[in-house]
Amino acid sequence: xxxxxxxxxxxxxxxxxxxxxxxxxxxxxxxxxxxxxxxxxxxxxxxxxxxxxxxxxxxxxxxxxxxxxxxxxxxxxxxxxxxxxxxxxxxxxxxxxxxxxxxxxxxxxxxxxxxxxxxxxxxxxxxxxxxxxxxxxxxxxxxxxxxxxxxxxxxxxxxxxxxxxxxxxxxxxxxxxxxxxxxxxxxxxxxxxxxxxxxxxxxxxxxxxxxxxxxxxxxxxxxxxxxxxxxxxxxxxxxxxxxxxxxxxxxxxxxxxxxxxxxxxxxxxxxxxxxxxxxxxxxxxxxxxxxxxxxxxxxxxxxxxxx
Amino acid sequence: xxxxxxxxxxxxxxxxxxxxxxxxxxxxxxxxxxxxxxxxxxxxxxxxxxxxxxxxxxxxxxxxxxxxxxxxxxxxxxxxxxxxxxxxxxxxxxxxxxxxxxxxxxxxxxxxxxxxxxxxxxxxxxxxxxxxxxxxxxxxxxxxxxxxxxxxxxxxxxxxxxxxxxxxxxxxxxxxxxxxxxxxxxxxxxxxxxxxxxxxxxxxxxxxxxxxxxxxxxxxxxxxxxxxxxxxxxxxxxxxxxxxxxxxxxxxxxxxxxxxxxxxxxxxxxxxxxxxxxxxxxxxxxxxxxxxxxxxxxxxxxxxxxxxxxxxxxxxxxxxxxxxxxxxxxxxxxxxxxxxxxxxxx
Lengths: 307, 346
Fold this sequence. Notes:
Shape of chain B: globular
Number of domains of chain A: 2
Largest interface: A-B, 42 and 26 residues
Helix content of chain B: 55-70%
CATH topology of the largest domain in chain A: Rossmann fold
Radius of gyration of chain A: 19 Å
Oligomer: heterodimer
Order of helices and strands of chain A: EHEEHEEHEEHEEEHEEEEHEEHEEHHHEH
Order of helices and strands of chain B: HHHHEHEHEHEEHEEHHHHHHHH
Strand order of the largest sheet of chain B: 3-4-5-2-1-7-6
CATH architecture of the largest domain in chain A: 3-Layer(aba) Sandwich
Largest sheet of chain A: 9 strands, mixed
């Protein structure tokens, strides 16, 4: 079996592979074995993952195993529910079956966040051009996903909107361009920005409100195996009506802010510290305050021009 | 039993990729992926190398935590003039044994003399350990203190790490009785530390007692892999001595069973021979079936599990204690309610 774009497989083959648990997704530094026979999941994968490299049975062992399944036999048939099962206990709530895309994306995130310690994982958006990568770390609701999507319209390729994966032995960030998860009011903003064709169907009424996914572009996926050095670390802060402003942070401040954004810093300990130390040494860090997406883009452009 | 041989590197990995994935998944679910990784990492490439690397990094963090905790316990107890014996995972790591390589560790177990128990508990409470929340109720606290071989678990208030303080290897009410004082007398001090561990032969015996005279063999694959790794690295003299030592300590039956399992599962003939000297080959047949069935997780595994569960309680306490205990626990039982914690992503 060889890797091919998902869209080149027909639905029956995809369904069969997902049902028997041999569907394999290769992305960035990870390969994933996925099972789950929900039609909602199949629809989502066929739409949002159409350009991703997959195979119908694995040609090598896989690091991530994810099963999207009913929480119990009862919930398989009566008011069906679905939940991600990455092979270890995760704090995931069962969801109605139609929310399979959310269960799938959550499961993927939990697998990486809680199991992977080959990289220092930082919850951040990452984009890159030929000069290097820009790491944007922020809490939910600060406009990180909108900023990531906007940067992609300005010549940057997507590395990830969830995880900055920093190598332990070399200070490079590894691409992991999964679809960008958009919440509530960011959905129309990003739709306006990138065009409706690029967004998945909206999954409404989830515990996190309405959710839609902006899929990675073929050019993001083509170079998903090429890591890059980080040149800028940004901490975006959206404030309604704020004057755009970039506040430079010294390396110590940058580390202090990156540590709580990491899902495995305390697990890796010294090695994670060394990785972050070399990261901030070779990059400039800023806190960005802005009131509109345009302002944030302008700020980043000014910073990239001067750094 | 090929799975276990493959995990410790005695058999080659299966040829089909799907079978390899199942093997790795089972090793991970049974907490022996790290041990497997440490033994096979030099032959691995591609994704397998990444998976092994990940497992070893995770175990490394556990070992760092454990080494730090040992240091804290040493500091807390040396003022009280007590030199504890580090048990199980802690001992493997402290002695840098083959069984430590890649092993996950979640808590620290120590052993002190019964007469020192009060002093030790006082010193640990003063140094920041607290009764662990799930057993911090009157019934459990009393039960542990009256009938068990350890204090109710302690959790460090700041670091959240769990410490089990034992004064024996088996519950006071157990049907087996192992002479722990002889093992403590033979314990060896760790160089430059006020800490001890059992001698390597006694470490094997303790692991056998823990696996086969206490509990329901809850993690059979891990237990068997661990016994194999310890046995495999015993010196020739220790292996010659194991039968007499086990008999001397009153651990002939559990050690005989452990040696039987190591011989049967990993094909170690010497272990089978020693087992024959400790227990008669035609005895404990149902128990032997149950061990293999639960390890294979085959079609009869539910029966094997039930048998081992009942056996563990039969061994652990007499019926006049067991019935009130189970009734009490049944009344207190509540289904787990899972409240999702806040995570930084959707």
